[in-house]
Amino acid sequence: MSAIAIAKKDFQDAVRSRGLIALTLIFVLFTVAGAYVGTQISGVLGDEAGDTLDLVIALQSPASFLVPIIALLIGYGAVAGERESGSLKFLLGLPHTRQDVVLGKVLGRTGVVVVSILIGFAAGMVAIFAFTGSISPVEYLVFTLLTVLLGFVYVCIGVGLSAMTKSTTRAAVGAFGLLGLFWLLWSVIAQLLLYLTSGSVFPESGYPDWYVTFLSLPPGPAYGSALGAALGESGLAVASTYEAQGLLEGGVPLVAQPSFGFVLLAAWAFVPLAIGLLRFDRVDL
Predict the structure, then answer these.
(1) Distance (Å) of CA 2 to CA 27, 69, 81, 91
(2) Cα dihedral sign, 143-145-146-148
(3) How far is CA 95 from CA 2, 98, 101, 108, 139, in A?
(4) Rounded average pLDDT per 10-residue block, the chain, 285 residues
(5) Three-state SS across the chain?
């Protein structure tokens, strides 16, 4: 119950943040814009209204971009901020353990991210219905739940990094440095390794299993894989693009399979959180 009490207090404090309100409004705008763009693309391709799955695919990009930013902004200062202000010693002076603090922060900050996602996707649902006149509630609900899962993953990463460090500055550098690694450097590293091992970034015999596996590892591609598995749309997985064009040396490796996206998301959530908790348990405040 201590973790729940901390979560409630943390949720109440974080949800009033002006920065969160601004990010949520931006998320709403991007979601509505994504629904509109998806409708227009469907019209150009000959489907006048477009179905819900097409529009969900259009909404995946703004969701996979903004949800990690919101979650990391909410999560990176969760523990480090308390240490900097000195309030963490007071909090631990109450009948709370360090595990209670970390888990409570995860639950509270996840709740804040969930509110932001639900507001954004509620606006998106209204926009889809306005643009198309219909919506598949099941597909949209699945999309919403998996996006909440993505938010939870990044909250765990942010809180885990926050528990590892003594200052919010270090936690922020770690959190957004990791985001830069995922978004900007991961594919560059993969191509560099491919060039070093095969002598080309466009191998004639096809891309090796390890290359597609490496590209599928970050949370973003894992989110796409999980969406593909849940919605029956394998094209959302990274490996599907290579497979459809006959660019794989063999079949799709296990880690790059759509259903394995759930395993990767679980690993990205709990491994950084476990490391942060172990580190937090051993440091002097």
Answers:
(1) 32, 28, 20, 11
(2) positive
(3) 7, 10, 11, 18, 43
(4) 80 76 84 78 52 74 89 90 79 77 91 91 84 79 94 96 91 93 95 91 85 95 93 82 76 89 96 93 74
(5) CHHHHHHHHHHHHHHCCHHHHHHHHHHHHHHHHHHHHHHHHHHHCCCCCCCHHHHHHHHHHHHHHHHHHHHHHHHCCCCHHHHHHCHHHHHHHCCCCHHHHHHHHHHHHHHHHHHHHHHHHHHHHHHHHHHHCCCCHHHHHHHHHHHHHHHHHHHHHHHHHHHHCCCHHHHHHHHHHHHHHHHHHHHHHHHHHHHHHHCCCCCCCCECHHHHHHHHCCHHHHHHHHHHHHHCCHHHCHHHHHHHCCCECCCCCHHHCHHHHHHHHHHHHHHHHHHHHHHHHHCCC
Total residue length of the chain = 285
Instruction: Determine the pLDDT at residue 13.
Output: 78
Q: Which of 160, 195, 193, 166 is nearest to 178 (CA)?
A: 160
pLDDT for the residue 52: 67
Residue of 11, 1, 138, 121 whose CA lies nearest to 67: 121
Rounded distance between C-alpha atoms, residue 199 and residue 197, angstroms = 6
Identify the residue whose tokens are 């460090």.
165
Could you give the CA distance from residue 189 to residue 214 in angstroms, rounded to a whole number? 10
pLDDT of residue 190: 95
